[in-house]
Design goal:
homotetramer; alpha+beta; Butyryl-Coa Dehydrogenase, subunit A, domain 1; Butyryl-CoA Dehydrogenase, subunit A, domain 2; Butyryl-CoA Dehydrogenase, subunit A, domain 3; 3 domains; four-stranded mixed beta sheet; four-stranded antiparallel beta sheet; globular; FAD (chains A, B, C, D); Acyl-CoA_dehydrogenase (chains A, B, C, D)
């Protein structure tokens, strides 16, 4: 048992930390200013600058295993994902490590044909286009992929897609050229073999990117929003299928594990940023003649935040290690556990940081309200926490159902 | 001891309930639609329609004691404020019972000169103009009014105002013609006699309504936003002073008690609305083959929500009764207690209603995210909860400091 | 709506408060000392002294409506029950207002025959004997009285009782001469008509008072403990039946409402006592050079305790008022709500008072650990909170099941 | 970074697990039965049997580094301490790994003279005597060792000890022959050099073991209770000093780190045991026609318990690893963090296990109430959590005090 990061990880952490200090944090106010005048759903220009800079520093596609990326293990990438979470509006995209492109690149790398990779993976790896993942639907419980109702029907050399998706993050943006769509190809197959995934160019006729869903008033415009997309008789060639018919569920599962690690580590980075802001505020602000830093309640928040963060990080890192050593299946309980533990704890921490800032903490003058919204959303994204809690409990109870006296 | 509303209250509750069902709830989707095309900081036209309708039904200025209003006690108005909280974007304004006009009308009625009343109170009572209350400042702890730094300096027949305010709700809107400004007239006076209040027409030279503060991602545009306002050498005649020089703090305190009741009762109405939406969703939605309404965790949320609401309502009503019977001073502890108890509990309830709705609950498709933001904001408005908790504790400890063996 | 106690209540509160100060609080250390040398399951002699004193002051049987008692309404008795909770080891018994005698006297008064009343009610009213209520059974979920398995079989002029009960409070004590036993007389009747109640002298052959159940480490010896009682072919004359065969469930329900009020109000009294101790400690103790009373976290506990107590008391009082005005049935939701809200909140308050006392708070040197145990137990007594929460939620959901769009 | 236990640890874990199954769990009911008839403060005979058995299996003094013990690192011993926590009344003592002997043996091994070791360490290592640690005093805040008031005065060849201690765990038992006493030798020295530690045979004249402190009604009789001990002119030879005069504080600190690891890991073992009991109960019990295991609220408790346990264990293991690699000083924050996180979380878990058991969970029929009391006590032992939270916060804030813009 060893709790130290390995040398490669430490080296990349140092490089990334320097990059954040030199380029990303200073870009934050520029981004906010440019945002006021950038047309809806387009990126402020500073984002492009940062991407070029990151590429130049070799901080590019760090998330991706294999030759196309940095070739890091989950355990090696996790602490880097944490660092990007410190500036979540800028750092992940700057490094070409932003969802949902990360998951889409992973699946194209693992399951894509050479043609699919040439057409879509290459520009994604280069950061010249963005992509969206169209899975969740308004009418069904999104926490169970087998509920998906969108139909993908074979018709001659094509597939025809009909259905309605929402929360397709990034799809409002013109730069998003690719939609990865999950649908049902065979309603008569076994439950987990009914689904398939197809690649749909956003410009395909019949694709109607209808509106952006808001999160607590935020449009997330600079990230292409969260689109409701209607697919009405959308026709793509059969060559756009990823893997085989019926592989959709399995591919979605494969995509899930690393994504969970990324999300959770970024959240931990957000929590560290929020704690940092809380500490700064605490030493700078002196209402009623005593610095916040000397008030017991604020100290309590700070201590509790630190203690929670340490626990969360260890849990996520152990999960990454398990995925690397025994695979996603063997890490199933832990992958659920980090989803249960992380968003709610991070939400708590950011809430306290907001409270320490007074009304300013609710406003655009600090990143806290936006960070909070990210954490709150992740209590629902990928299925509500409650679904994961129930599932984890059932697994825990399994041994006792066979033998109530199991130790 | 008697826990039943009196006859007049019951009659008005019934009338208001009917008005909500017949006019306000149906107007909600219209409001949302009009909002998309209404210029920033202006009211969607449906608001005007509702105001006319409410006036026609005699549901107008219910909050105001005395002849100018409905002449209700705090205890009688409180349950009506609760009902308006069920549709907080529309009902309070429709009935001309929206903050901060309510507090401004109260102080003009109680402390205004006949000239001030003719100029400002009459159009406010008629609902033809709106007003703002400029108190909180970016640089000082807003929970203590004696910290106010904006200066109001006598100069000949005028007062000259210099300072910076923010969170001046409503002030972004052109229809807001009056700013009630709290500032310091005499830095050498006793601590609570340094402040004064003056009436400043929004169009006065030197008034710079600079930007709207956001709450999470919301601008609250349809309500005139929350403005940062800079007063740079702003000159108003001395006749614009409310009461006497040095009365500012006392007037602000007088304004506070009823406002606290209104805020808390509206929050309780929001909690009822959220609970209602949660129950509806619970019976309609059947993920994983079992209605949410039969899932233990959701039942737990519903029960806890009901139990909390009942307790909160009784506490606020008792506080209103105390204010009516022994005055604001005698109700001091309770006025703090409702501020401590209500926003955080209501926030909890709305959070659970959101969770029951899945990602839809975070979006513009339900009022929940917006309701939640209102509750969250009130953990900071009027001073952070923590300040009130500390103050209430000190009062509780007072007897023991004199005699540790006090029973 | 009126939140003031009536004159009779105020008068009795004052008298009881004086009695507590003059007699009960000073008796507490005496009780603790006598306890060390009193044989197990017997009362320390000071209890008898206090009973005589209370009777002399006319503070006797206050709980009982009608001529045999003080004739108070639930709403009038509730604040007196609260005061007895301030010294729960002594005051309730001193006033002959201790459970389970209170419930047993109520049912004997309401449903007993003249013979039963002469034999059992009179000595109970005089406080010369004690009684127990044998309902809960080890093998069934005690939250549903229809689960009761103990059999009561008619045999000639007798009933024969067989079964096992536990948590029969008081039954370990010799002074407990009467067991009120709930059992099943007719397994074929409708679900709520199968049960009956019989009076069983504790000395009857076949009654085996087997052992005292402990609560955490407490035996509650001075109150006759919490007995496990085996009934093995126990024979009593048919005249010992209360009411008619099949009335058991209905009688148990009638007994429940007032008991819930008593329990909850006593808990509130315990919370007040704990808060008082916490405040005293806070002003007296100065670790690390600053009084606890000036430490933010302790202030937070004190404020939160006060705010919770005020809400709980109002909820319980409203419930008492509902029972007085519309009956137990009409107060059903509220009777559940106070069970859900009170024990857990009071437990929280006492926990904080313990924490403020350091390790002393866990020990016999303060009443806090014992008070805490009482509150913790009541999260389970009368059925776990979770059962009541589920039931309240179902009731809340009822309207929506008929019409999901109910407002 | 590697999250797997090393081979030696795995081997010992397996051996200890087998020992628990074969010997300890079966001994639990025997212990409970013997306890009823064992004289106060003496060990039930089964304890001696288990000690012999453990010795025979080589599971003896596992906690102790160096040649006298098993020579394990903190990281290696930690998971074994966890396993002993599964049966905390029996396993730690059976393995001669029970507090406070562990800490006392550590300090005798590290700081004792050959004579002291021959007289006291040898019989402690053999398990033929027990010892107590007399540090906490009734009148001072025990969380700061510099507050200690007991005086140790040099007088000729002797030290004379005067003072009052309490919570001296184990000291009520005759088998406890040694008291390690912390006191003040030089009130004029620097703050952390005033204290010294001396060895006092329990039989020394002037040692008055006055009474046992109770924890929630428990006497902990079978473990020698928690004594209040008065030292009245107690005289011991100067050779009984441990280390040098003024070393007391430093020795106490050295003793603290490993003890914290042991306590926390045992608590985690208790939490695992409680979770196990909760799961068993959940599959066995079917109130209202549905197994507890299928009720959402119970599933929620189980999932949350698992998620918390995993996080706690990782945090404690990392702390042990830090102590092994960078020393106690470098692990300071983490040693505080585990004290803050563990007792309160484990208390929560055990509380839920109790609730799932109904009233039985509060009683002597299950170990849960006793386990809960252990966890609750540890929120205060070694200083209240609040003190550690404040201290950790100050450390966190340190960097910001120097530079508010620290990242």
């Amino acid at each position: 048992m060893d709790f130290a990061y390995d040398a490669r990880t430490e080296e990349l952490r140092a490089a990334l930390d320097t990059f954040l200090r030199d380029h990303v944090y200073p870009a934050e106010p520029v981004f906010a200013e440019q945002l006021e005048t950038t047309p809806a759903w387009e990126r402020p220009p500073i984002v492009q600058t940062l991407k070029a800079e990151a590429k130049r520093h070799g901080l590019w596609n760090l998330f991706l295993p294999g030759e196309n990326g940095a070739g890091l293990s989950n355990l090696q990438y996790a602490p880097l994902a944490e660092l990007t979470g410190r500036s979540p509006d800028l750092a992940p995209e700057a490094l070409n490590c932003a969802a949902p492109d990360t998951g889409n690149m992973e699946l194209l790398q693992e399951f894509g044909t050479p043609e699919q990779q040439a057409t879509w993976l290459v520009p994604l790896l280069n950061g010249t286009i963005r992509s969206a993942f169209c899975m969740t639907e308004p009418e069904v419980a999104s926490s169970d992929a087998t509920n998906i109702a969108t139909s993908i029907t074979a018709d001659g050399d094509d597939y025809v897609i009909d259905g309605r998706k929402w929360w397709s993050t990034g799809a409002m943006a013109p730069v998003c050229e690719l939609l990865v769509v999950m649908g049902r190809t065979n309603p008569d197959a076994a439950k987990h073999r009914q689904q398939s995934m197809v690649l749909v160019p956003r410009s395909t006729s019949g694709v109607d990117v209808r509106r952006g869903m808001r999160l607590f008033g935020y449009t997330d415009s600079a990230h292409g929003g969260h689109a409701e997309v209607v697919f009405d008789n959308v026709r793509v060639p059969k060559g756009n299928l990823i893997g085989n018919e019926g592989d959709g569920f399995a591919i979605a599962q494969a995509r899930l594990g690393p994504g969970r690690i990324h999300h959770c580590m970024r959240l931990i980075g957000m929590a560290e940023r929020a704690l940092e802001l809380m500490c700064r505020r605490a030493v700078e602000r002196t209402p009623f003649g005593k610095p916040l830093a000397e008030q017991g309640v604020v100290q309590d928040w700070i201590a509790e935040s630190r203690v929670r963060i340490e626990q969360l990080r260890l849990l996520v890192l152990k999960t990454a290690w398990l995925m690397d050593t025994v695979g996603n299946q063997g890490a199933h309980t832990e992958i659920q556990a980090i989803k249960i533990a992380t968003p709610s704890s991070v939400e708590w921490i950011i809430d306290k940081a907001i409270q320490a800032h007074g009304a300013a903490g609710l406003s655009q003058d600090f990143p806290l309200a936006s960070l909070w919204t990210a954490a709150r959303s992740l209590r629902l994204a990928d299925g509500p926490d409650e679904v994961h809690r129930r599932s984890l409990a059932r697994r825990e109870l399994r041994a006792y159902r066979k033998d109530p006296h199991a130790h």
